[in-house]
């Protein structure tokens, strides 16, 4: 294969973990990883984690021989906000509630937020002041002075219905800033109704605000001093990045961003369109969903309560590469949740073969309160843990060059005492260990596939993290699904940070939303990502209208540069046809090309009949041969930008379904240039067609457009 052409332009991603800070450099054209470094996270330095970020950046550029001005994109992900909440290391919050009568009664009840427990024995430090008339400047000054004198270091302003009338919250915010206090207004955190949840989200945001502002300023100053001209971006918990200014306003968005970085890497680097991503460390596996080319996001729980924080839907299972084996009654009864790391024991498969001489199996209780059935090896070299990684190596599941690879002979010796205990051979013992661990993960994966209605014909399992090989390959075999370990799986999180897109989500409650209102929310999201540095020509917006809750949601994503990837390898027609056939699970001769653009080809096959009508499953592949869109049954039509409005109107009319659930327009996606415009979140025909026109407006009339429509049941 011809080497991919690279440039001097770099995308740098830095992931600040609890122990180490990892940094990677990715070529901005080929997206190839060209360098990676690891430094200890500098929690105890006078500049905090900012010192480690700059140290990692400096070492990375030195090792790959590049200059700071080569960096065109720089982003970092951090656990700082998460750790601050877990440890109770937050600033005292002054909550100013507004209203009189019934509204005043509701806001006064918010003083109970001071009972939120951050850590055992540590409650949220909150001072409450009530303001009856925010239109009275003297009363506003008095309320701010009260919480400031009570020791508050940051202010939150909240008022019922402030999403519609924010003037009261804005008046308090202006006074707080005049007093030198950082401030969060509830309506800026979210535009959704629900006073309690909106205020709770704002209060948690404010509690971490001073600490995050200090870190942001230190990192920004240090990066500029280092000569990097690219604006600094920060990883969000929904899989995108935001500008440093946006992080200063809403640092809460960085909570839970660790798992989000990993799935962003799978989405962007591995180019998964339908699947489950499993990021496996030493102790646990974070499981998340990619559905139709997008990460699955929901409102997260914070401190055990609901919030309006849009975060990756991640499920964590206590099974990882270091999970220890539990044995009872002559069988493996479980793997984990205790890991070798926590027990303070080395993995048996990473010992020297000589250290495993005279090995015998012993059962221990690793920590106080644990069951006493955890199996360990006592041998010539000391005591060792038998782990999932040991079993994966013994079965040859860990590929050459992987972070977790060990000598197969040592892995076999590590499993031999367990095999004797179980009355089987090494392969049987290793399979029993992996079965026990993978079964727990499989329960969650099966549930996610059901919950998100993933297309089981297209689902792929992708493993990331240093322990990926201990879970994903065996799980794929157990589940009967295709699986793979992500390239450079041990640094998938910083790779995800480096490749992430600028993202913004706008939500509005708009009963009976008109076309103009829906387009207004869409345009607001697009303008927000452009304001944060996204190139206007690289922005995509997905709009969803939920008629049950009257919620209009627009999610905009965009690159900070027009990424015209000059990838040397393109799949030829035969390769793409074979890939489509494999995804459709039919012979290649049964697949036909239905439509295409310069960037995408649409393939279809008649598979089975339902109610006298042949179903036509469809796959859309890009030039690299990657499946970017799949539909179990779709209509496909080719037109031009000039003719598309009329053609789409007729197609939507024909494909609209009528039933007890009401009138529902089809799910529409448009292939436009290098983009797939997803309009499937809109159920009503008129706003759907209005959104389609907005996608077409900046394009030339003779440009081809391919429409893929799915009739809703």
Task: Explain what the structure shows.
With 713 residues, the protein is an alpha+beta fold. The chain contains 19 helices and 40 strands. The chain has a six-stranded mixed sheet. Strands 13, 14, 15, 18, 24 and 25 form a six-stranded mixed sheet that branches. Helix 11 (388-394) crosses helix 12 (408-422), helix 13 (426-451) crosses helix 14 and helix 18 packs antiparallel against helix 19. The longest helix is centred in the first third of the chain and has 31 residues, at 195-225.
Helix tally equals 19
Q: Strand tally, please?
A: 40
Q: In terms of structural class, how would the helical and strand content be classed?
A: alpha+beta
Shape: globular
Kindly state the mean pLDDT as a whole number?
Answer: 90
- Across the major sheet, the strand order is 3-2-1-4-11-12
How much helical structure, as a percent, in the residues?
25-40%
Can you summarize the main beta sheet? 6 strands, mixed
How much of the sequence lies in strands comes to 25-35%
Low-pLDDT segments, ≥5 res? 1-5, 564-568
What separation lies between the terminal Cα atoms? 45 Å
Work out the radius of gyration. 27 Å
């Amino acid at each position: 294969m011809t080497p991919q052409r690279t440039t001097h332009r770099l995308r740098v991603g830095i992931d600040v973990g609890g122990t180490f800070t990892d940094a990677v450099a990715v070529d901005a054209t080929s997206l190839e990883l060209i360098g990676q470094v690891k430094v200890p996270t500098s929690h105890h330095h006078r500049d905090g984690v900012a010192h480690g970020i700059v140290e990692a950046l400096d070492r990375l550029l030195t090792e790959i021989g590049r200059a700071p001005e080569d960096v065109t994109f720089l982003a970092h992900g951090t656990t700082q906000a998460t750790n601050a909440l877990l440890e109770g290391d937050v600033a005292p919050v002054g909550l100013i509630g507004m209203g009189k009568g019934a509204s005043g009664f509701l806001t006064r009840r918010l003083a109970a937020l001071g009972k939120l427990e951050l850590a055992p024995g540590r409650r949220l430090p909150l001072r409450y002041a009530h303001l009856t008339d925010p239109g009275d400047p003297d009363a506003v000054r008095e309320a701010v002075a009260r919480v400031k004198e009570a020791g508050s270091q940051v202010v939150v302003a909240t008022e019922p219905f402030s999403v519609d009338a924010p003037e009261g919250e804005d008046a308090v915010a202006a006074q707080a800033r005049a007093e030198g206090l950082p401030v969060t207004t509830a309506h800026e955190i979210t535009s959704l109704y629900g006073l309690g949840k909106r205020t709770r989200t704002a209060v948690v945001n404010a509690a971490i605000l001073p600490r995050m502002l200090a870190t942001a300023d230190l990192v920004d100053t240090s990066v500029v001093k280092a000569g990097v001209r690219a604006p600094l971006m920060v990883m969000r918990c929904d899989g995108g990045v935001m500008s440093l200014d946006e992080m200063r306003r809403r640092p809460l968005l960085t909570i839970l961003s660790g798992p989000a970085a990993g799935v962003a890497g799978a989405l962007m680097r591995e180019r998964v369109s339908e699947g489950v991503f499993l990021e496996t460390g030493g102790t646990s596996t974070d499981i998340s969903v990619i559905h139709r080319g997008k990460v699955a996001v929901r409102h997260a729980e914070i401190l055990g309560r609901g919030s309006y924080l849009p975060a990756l839907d991640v499920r964590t299972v206590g099974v990882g590469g270091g999970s220890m084996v539990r044995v009872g009654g002559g069988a493996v009864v479980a793997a984990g949740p205790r890991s070798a790391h926590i027990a303070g024991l080395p993995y048996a498969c990473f010992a020297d073969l000589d250290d495993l001489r005279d090995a015998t199996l012993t059962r221990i209780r690793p920590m106080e309160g644990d069951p006493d059935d955890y199996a360990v090896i006592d041998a010539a070299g000391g005591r060792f843990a038998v782990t999932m990684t040991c079993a994966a190596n013994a079965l040859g599941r860990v590929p050459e060059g992987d972070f977790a690879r060990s000598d197969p002979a040592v892995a076999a010796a590590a499993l031999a005492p367990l095999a004797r205990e179980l009355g089987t051979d090494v392969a049987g013992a290793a399979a029993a260990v992996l079965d026990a661990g993978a079964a727990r993960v499989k329960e969650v994966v099966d549930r996610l596939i059901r919950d998100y209605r993933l297309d089981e014909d297209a689902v792929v399992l992708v493993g990331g993290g240093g322990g990926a090989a201990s879970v994903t390959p065996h799980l794929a075999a157990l589940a009967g699904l295709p699986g793979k370990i992500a390239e450079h799986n041990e640094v998938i999180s910083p790779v995800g940070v480096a490749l992430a897109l600028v993202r913004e989500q706008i939500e509005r409650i708009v009963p009976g939303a008109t076309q103009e209102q829906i387009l207004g929310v869409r345009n607001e999201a697009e303008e927000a990502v452009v304001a944060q540095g996204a190139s206007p020509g690289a922005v995509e917006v997905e709009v969803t209208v939920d008629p049950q809750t009257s919620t209009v949601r627009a999610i905009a994503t965009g690159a900070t540069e027009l990424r015209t990837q000059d990838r040397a390898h393109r799949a030829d027609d035969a390769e793409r046809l074979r890939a489509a056939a494999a995804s459709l699970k039919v012979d290649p001769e049964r697949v036909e090309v239905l439509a295409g653009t310069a960037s995408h080809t649409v393939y279809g096959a008649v598979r089975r009949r339902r109610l006298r009508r042949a179903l036509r499953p469809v796959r859309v592949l890009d030039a690299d041969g990657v499946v970017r869109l799949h539909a179990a049954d779709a209509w496909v039509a080719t037109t031009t930008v000039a003719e598309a409005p009329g053609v789409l109107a007729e197609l939507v009319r024909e494909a609209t379904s009528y039933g007890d659930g009401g009138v529902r327009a089809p799910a529409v996606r448009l292939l436009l240039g290098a983009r797939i415009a997803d309009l499937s979140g809109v159920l009503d025909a008129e706003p759907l067609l209005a959104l389609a026109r907005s996608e077409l407006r900046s394009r030339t009339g003779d440009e081809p457009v391919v429409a893929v429509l799915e009739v809703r049941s």
